[in-house]
Design a protein that fits this description.
single chain, about 230 residues, alpha/beta, TIM Barrel, eight-stranded parallel sheet
């Protein structure tokens, strides 16, 4: 049994059945993706359009991994949408109204609806992307965009060993999610329908805290694939 297979098996045994594992394969070769797929993993996360497209094409050419699903988890520039949107089942990292509107416009032009998560800036690091609380509330209380389906919130905690701080970051996401659900049930969130039901937070170093606090999706890379091996141009 390979290390990747063993790690996936241990993770799947640990995670509750209702928590989705996104295997973050960025900067790892397509062979590692195939290995993880053969171990039963189906959902993979990529953060760079060029790398995602290269892997999609390699797997299509080989005929391997026919039911693989991709989540885009990095900052997405609007001029790269055509490299991403045709191939992903979800964009987890919508971090601006400009990007949200561009995805909606692309959907109208291509007769499709894209599932997205709104990235909530919960970390102490200013360098991380994401909306503020009031910006997210403004989006969900605005009229729905017909070619974008808001599925929930995504966030990244401060990168630290301080578990109290990590829990505080995650608590902000859970609190906002709960607020949106209450407002939705009162008919105040036309953009957040019944499919607004996903909380994506937790990575290799903090996923256990995330699961304990109610995450529906965890994004784990290093624990599965090891340290980054190569950058795909």
């Amino acid at each position: 049994m390979s290390q990747i297979t063993d790690r996936i098996n241990r993770l799947k045994a640990e995670l509750p059945d209702d928590v989705m594992l996104v295997a973050v394969s960025k900067f790892h070769p397509v062979e590692a993706v195939v290995e993880a797929y053969r171990a039963g993993q189906r959902v993979f996360g990529e953060s760079r359009p060029q790398e995602l497209l290269a892997k999609v094409r390699a797997l299509e050419t080989s005929g391997l991994c026919p039911d693989i699903r991709w989540h885009f988890i990095g900052h997405l520039q609007t001029n790269k949408l055509k490299m991403v949107l045709p191939y992903v089942s979800m964009v987890e990292s919508v971090d601006s109204v400009h990007l949200l509107d561009a995805i909606d416009r692309w959907g109208r032009e291509n007769n499709t609806v894209t599932d997205v998560l709104l990235e909530y800036h919960i970390a102490a690091e200013e360098t991380k992307q994401g909306f503020g609380r009031d910006e997210i509330l403004s989006i969900v209380t605005s009229p729905a965009r017909m070619n974008v389906r808001l599925r929930g919130l995504m966030g990244m905690a401060t990168f630290t060993d301080d578990q109290t701080l990590v829990r505080s970051d995650f608590s902000r996401l859970m609190s906002l999610y709960g607020e949106i659900i209450r407002m939705r049930d009162e008919g105040k969130c036309p953009s957040a329908g019944r499919e607004f039901n996903i909380r994506s937070f937790g990575m290799t170093h903090d996923y256990r805290i995330a699961v304990a606090m109610g995450a529906d999706v965890v994004r784990i890379g290093t624990l599965i694939f090891g340290e980054r091996e190569a950058v795909v141009k």
